[in-house]
Amino acid sequence: xxxxxxxxxxxxxxxxxxxxxxxxxxxxxxxxxxxxxxxxxxxxxxxxxxxxxxxxxxxxxxxxxxxxxxxxxxxxxxxxxxxxxxxxxxxxxxxxxxxxxxxxxxxxxxxxxxxxxxxxxxxxxxxxxxxxxxxxxxxxxxxxxxxxxxxxxxxxxxxxxxxxxxxxxxxxxxxxxxxxxxxxxxxxxxxxxxxxxxxxxxxxxxxxxxxxxxxxxxxxxxxxxxxxxxxxxxxxxxxxxxxxxxxxxxxxxxxxxxxxxxxxxxxxxxxxxxxxxxxxxxxxxxxxxxxxxxxxxxxxxxxxxxxxxxxxxxxxxxxxxxxxxxxxxxxxxxxxxxxxxxxxxxxxxxxxxx
Length: 354
Prior knowledge:
It is a single chain. By secondary structure, this protein is of the alpha+beta class. Among the domains are: 82-124, no CATH class; 148-210; 222-332, Nucleotidyltransferase, domain 5 (2-Layer Sandwich), CATH 3.30.420. 44% of the residues lie in helices and 19% in strands. It is built from 12 helices and 10 strands. It has helices at 2-13, 24-32, 54-65, 116-124, 126-136, 154-168, 178-187, 197-219, 270-283, 299-312, 326-340, 342-353, and strands spanning 82-89, 92-100, 106-108, 137-141, 147-151, 225-233, 239-248, 254-263, 290-295, 322-324. The chain has a 5-stranded mixed beta sheet with strand order 8-7-6-9-10. The protein is elongated and about 125 Å long. It starts with a helix and ends with a helix.
């Protein structure tokens, strides 16, 4: 008898009835999920008349109340910022609106209308903008010890990445490398995101256009400009003609700027040199401001200046327009002297070793 009581106590501790109680069919229904389980009222008596199918009636009631209907989860990411609003229309529960979690503004949210208007609201939500600005703001120390509010701006970071690539001659794909991202996020800014090479290419073009426009505006207040031009070969075995400007700005400071690097993939004759120098000067509007042009002491450069004289003589005339590079002249003098002294140097070298 004691063993039976112990067994019944274990059953009751697990939530079942003991052998000394009635209603074993209900226990079986709990274990096996029978749809024919008898629904008991609080007093343990069956509801309705015996054999009347109260289980199906309960299921129908549950269906009418909507408790068994499961909503399909929304897949758009925009619902992370919105609460869905449902209403019962013609006995069917439908989504009719959406409420912004940040500013609490109510918008239409029917499934047939899409989510484009919700995405646009997120981009202009004033409450969300202010929160993001506060989250991205940090205190930064000034050189004098004071502090000011610093805000991380991705467009500024991308512009500075272009400057870094240009100054150090880095590969244009460095912004999308895992190593560079790890370095920046770990040591400097954890909110930095990768920048693809396509985006960096567009940023380069945009940055160049902006800086060029600023420089052209600066040159409007310059009275005269001295140019230096030379031809050099790049790493890809391609020749470029460089044009460098020297001038005094509005603050009476001497400045040196590279105006252009033009590919010269043809003969380095006077016509091709003059054509490329002229194109750079015209692009910056300096036709009537050229004070002097310094070139190497080569015959092709001399003939190129003869072709440039009618175009560039508007400011100072053609008398002092062509300036020959002093360093190149000294280099030619030294080479000629060494050529004359080469035999003497050979004899001195032999005597030294003897």
